[in-house]
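Feature request, filed as a ticket because there's no other form

It would be nice if the structure record came with a short human-readable summary line next to the tokens. Right now we just get the raw output. Example of a typical job, pasted below so the devs can see what we mean:
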Amino acid sequence: MASRIGTISRFGPVAALFLAAAAQESAAQTAYEACVNNARAVYDTSHAAECKRLAEQTGQDRADCLGKLKLPPTYCDLSYPARDDSPNCTLPAENATVIDAALERARYRCARENQAAQ
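Raw output as currently delivered:
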């Protein structure tokens, strides 16, 4: 630390301003990256939850088809095929669009906050 202070003193207030600006920019970049990473984590969690929800709903619909409606298993199997409940399932377009749009809004918010911080 003493050598840094000596360097700043040797180059004067310009160096101090430069170092302060660099530190502020670095902090803003770190905050931006944390914001984007958080947005991605929320997206991943939302996507996984929607995969699970749709798979459970389809399973319940198939069970109702067989039990309550007493329809033939072949019909119920074709009407309610098993869905992938893994976190990386392929979502129907209408579900994926909502989750994707939320991610884009979050990224845009992160960028605005980053610009305001600089």
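Something like this underneath would help us a lot:
The helical segments are 2-11, 13-67, 73-79, 93-117.
The chain has a mean pLDDT of 89.
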